[in-house]
């Protein structure tokens, strides 16, 4: 009998912990899980490069030069980047931005430097809650998706790092559609 009580107590404890922690994480399909892992690796890698530059007060030109070099090196290595890369200030203003041409990844273009996203509500989790946000955006080139993460140092928000994908690339290269991307919690 004591074994049954211990088992019941463990089951109740597990249920209470599950309820206290909120909803269980959404089960991801293989493509979603792979994409989530890849984006998290990109964000982690870029954070190690960009956060120190922001912390030392790098100018937008210095940040842009760094991003441009990353795109050029990836192309030279035969592995062009398939995502946008943007750096925003702590006030949500774009400081640097480079994008690949979805039709030819060896061709890149400069994003909209100086654009202010402080009133873009989809960025609130990044700038107000210190959370990664994934969202749909509409550009002159069509629908796209962004995943943005806060960049912090010593408890201070330095800015944000965003990776972006156009809709067709997301489906063709990653097998993830709009609903599947928006169902991913990049904070778990």
How does this model look, in words?
The chain has 188 residues and is α+β, with helices and mostly antiparallel strands. The chain has a single domain, classed as PAS domain (Beta-Lactamase, 2-Layer Sandwich). It has six helices and six strands. Strands 3-2-1-6-5-4 form a six-stranded antiparallel beta sheet. It starts with a helix and ends in a 6-residue tail after the last helix.
Shape: globular
Tally of DSSP β-strands: 6
Q: Main β-sheet: number of strands, strand sense, barrel status?
A: 6 strands, antiparallel
CATH architecture term: 2-Layer Sandwich
**CATH superfamily membership, which one?**
PAS domain
- How many separate helices? 6
User: What do we call the CATH topology?
Assistant: Beta-Lactamase
Can you tell me the CATH class?
Answer: Alpha Beta
Evaluate the radius of gyration.
20 Å
User: Uncertain segments of ≥5 residues (pLDDT<50)?
Assistant: 1-23
Mean pLDDT: 86
The tally of structural domains comes to 1
State the distance separating the first and last CA atoms.
39 Å
Largest sheet strand order: 3-2-1-6-5-4
């Amino acid at each position: 009998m004591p074994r049954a009580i211990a088992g019941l107590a463990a089951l109740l404890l597990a249920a209470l912990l599950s309820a206290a922690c909120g909803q269980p994480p959404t089960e991801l399909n293989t493509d979603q899980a792979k994409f989530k892992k890849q984006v998290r690796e990109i964000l982690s890698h870029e954070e190690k490069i960009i956060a120190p530059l922001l912390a030392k007060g790098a100018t937008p030109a210095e940040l842009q030069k760094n991003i441009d070099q990353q795109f050029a090196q990836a192309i030279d290595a035969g592995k062009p980047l398939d995502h946008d890369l943007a750096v925003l200030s702590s006030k949500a203003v774009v400081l640097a931005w480079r994008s690949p041409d979805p039709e030819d990844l060896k061709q890149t273009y400069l994003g909209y430097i100086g654009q202010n996203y402080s009133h873009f509500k989809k960025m609130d989790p990044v700038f107000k809650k210190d959370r990664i946000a994934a969202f749909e955006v509409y550009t002159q080139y069509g629908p796209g998706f962004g995943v943005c993460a806060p960049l912090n140092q010593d408890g201070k928000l330095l800015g944000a790092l965003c990776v972006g994908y156009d809709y067709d690339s997301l489906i063709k290269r990653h097998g993830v559609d709009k609903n599947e991307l928006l169902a991913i919690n990049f904070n778990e």
